Amino acid sequence: MLLSSAVDRGFRALLRGDVDEVSADAAAELLDQAERCGGGPEAISPESRLLCAEVALQVGRIQLARSCVESFLQTRPPKNQFLVRAYYCSGRIQVRAVGILPDRIP
């Protein structure tokens, strides 16, 4: 649990304020490293993957967003606001994939 809270603090620090592609990539890499070093997906909170997906989508990193949403949904999350946000994010990713929306949505 100590690793999880440390990773979550570092992750949230990367995504604080103005985010760009570099900080989105760094946040995703931090989550990946935590999973590799800490014993799998249980090493981080699943919501961190969803937050990473939302930020990745915001900065136009569609593949990263898709990967993060899929990772979140594989954890079988409880039926709460995060699951709804994951479905919303997934829908935005699918719309972007067919080119209906501009690259960046506020």
Low-confidence residue ranges? none
From the spread of the alpha carbons, the general shape counts as globular
> Helices and strands: which structural class?
mainly alpha
Give me the Rg, rounded. Answer: 13 Å
**Number of contiguous helices:** 5
What order do the SSEs take from the amino end to the carboxyl end, as H and E?
HHHHH
What portion of residues belong to β-strands? Answer: under 5%
Distance, first to last CA = 34 Å
What's the rounded overall pLDDT mean? Answer: 80
**How would you sum up the major sheet?**
none
Specify the helix fraction band: 55-70%
The number of strands is 0
Folded structure, characterized:
This protein is mainly α and 106 residues long. The chain is built from 5 helices and no strands. It has helices spanning 2-14, 21-38, 46-58, 62-74, 81-97. Helix 2 (21-38) packs antiparallel against helix 3, helix 3 (46-58) packs antiparallel against helix 4 and helix 4 (62-74) packs antiparallel against helix 5 (81-97). The longest helix has 18 residues, at 21-38. The model has no long low-confidence stretch (mean pLDDT 80).
Please provide a brief summary of the model.
The protein contains five helices and no strands.
Keywords:
mainly alpha, globular, 106 residues
Annotate the secondary structure layout.
Layout: H1 2-14, H2 21-38, H3 46-58, H4 62-74, H5 81-97
Helix pairs in contact: 1-2, 2-3, 3-4, 3-5, 4-5
